[in-house]
Design goal:
This protein is α/β, with parallel strands linked by helices and 303 residues long. The protein has 2 domains: 166 residues, NAD(P)-binding Rossmann-like Domain (Rossmann fold), CATH 3.40.50; 121 residues, N-(1-d-carboxylethyl)-l-norvaline Dehydrogenase, domain 2 (Orthogonal Bundle). The protein contains 14 helices and 9 strands. The strands form 2 sheets. A 6-stranded parallel beta sheet has the order 3-2-1-4-5-6, with helices on both faces. Strand 1, helix 2 and strand 2 form a beta-alpha-beta unit. Helix 9 packs across helix 11. The longest helix is centred in the middle third of the chain and has 29 residues.
Length: 303
């Protein structure tokens, strides 16, 4: 690893970004972190990483900048805001964008950054916080050959599966939106089924055992419904993430004049859950929304 490749900035040290930062550090990179929450930066520094107050400071002379923020608007601020990374990244550096966003936004940001002589890799992620910490994410990436070449050492440190999905930004984002359509629908369906089972007076742990061994199972049912069984809605992935992502899908579909009635119904379930005060809770809280509307009792939920 050459000196110019060692410095990596990670902007956004939430549950995913922090794990990605530690995976990069474990791989031998000189990692500098930045987050709006000072505690997250201090936590990384306690593990031997560097800290910065702004994206510009974190990205100074970095050959690779990994942005792990929520959406396109935040990504644009990380790049081109008053303290943005674009003006301080090393010439020829690569910006790895892991946010979920509209493909058109990814294309616009890539064009704007590439005009400065830097590279943009559209690289949404999947896998959750645990896999991020283990360096075993799935990354859905698209961009130029030069962007992939520059980013590959960092990608190898963060991902168990890297899908190279095209030579232009936006393609990775589009693949991620298909995943999010399915994920959101499956969480809503799993939550509806579990709350309905509770209304029938069924043993929910037995329901979980039976369904996970049957054709009706899904990865989201198997992964999220233990949160319902335990009455634990500590956010691993929040309700409002799917309010955002399913909203993007509706916008994309409306532009394409393509009907997406199932994901539209799922969006309404997430909106109702968020409006009920659970937007920052785990996305399995959709089951709680069903339970509260119908007067059904779920484990650990007394309200």
């Amino acid at each position: 690893m050459t000196e110019s490749r060692q410095r990596v900035a990670v902007v956004g040290l939430g549950s995913m970004g922090f794990g990605m930062a530690t995976s990069l550090k474990r791989a031998g990179f000189d990692v500098v972190g930045c987050d709006v929450m000072a505690g997250a930066v201090e936590k990384l520094m306690a593990l031997g990483g560097g800290g910065a107050a702004t994206p510009a400071e974190a990205a100074k002379d970095a050959a690779i900048v990994v942005s792990v923020v929520v959406n396109g608007a935040q990504t644009e601020a990380v790049l081109f805001g008053n303290d943005g990374a674009a003006k301080t990244m090393a010439p020829g550096a690569v910006f790895i964008s892991s946010a979920t966003m509209d493909p058109d936004v990814a294309r616009r940001l890539a064009k704007q950054l590439e005009a400065t002589g830097r590279h943009y890799l559209d690289a949404p992620i999947s896998g959750g916080a645990q896999r991020a910490a283990q360096g075993e994410l799935t990354i859905l990436a698209s961009g130029s050959a030069a962007a992939f070449t520059k980013a590959r050492p960092a990608l190898d440190a963060m991902a168990a599966k890297l899908y190279e999905l095209g030579d232009a930004a936006g393609q990775g984002a589009a693949f991620k939106m298909i995943n999010q359509l399915l994920a959101g629908v499956h969480i809503a369906a799993a939550s509806e089924a579990m709350a309905f089972a509770a209304k029938q007076g069924l043993d929910l742990r037995k329901v979980y055992e039976v369904i996970t061994a049957s054709a009706g199972n899904s990865w989201m049912f198997e992964n999220r419904m233990p949160h319902v069984l335990d009455g634990d809605y500590t956010p691993r992935s929040a309700v409002d993430i799917f309010v955002k992502d399913l909203g993007i899908i509706q916008d994309m579909a409306r532009t394409a004049k393509f009907p997406v009635p199932v994901s539209a119904a799922a969006l309404q379930m997430f909106l109702m859950t968020s409006a009920s005060g659970m937007g920052r809770d785990d996305d399995a809280s959709v089951a709680r929304m069903y339970a509260r509307v119908t007067g059904t009792t779920l484990p650990g939920d007394k309200t």
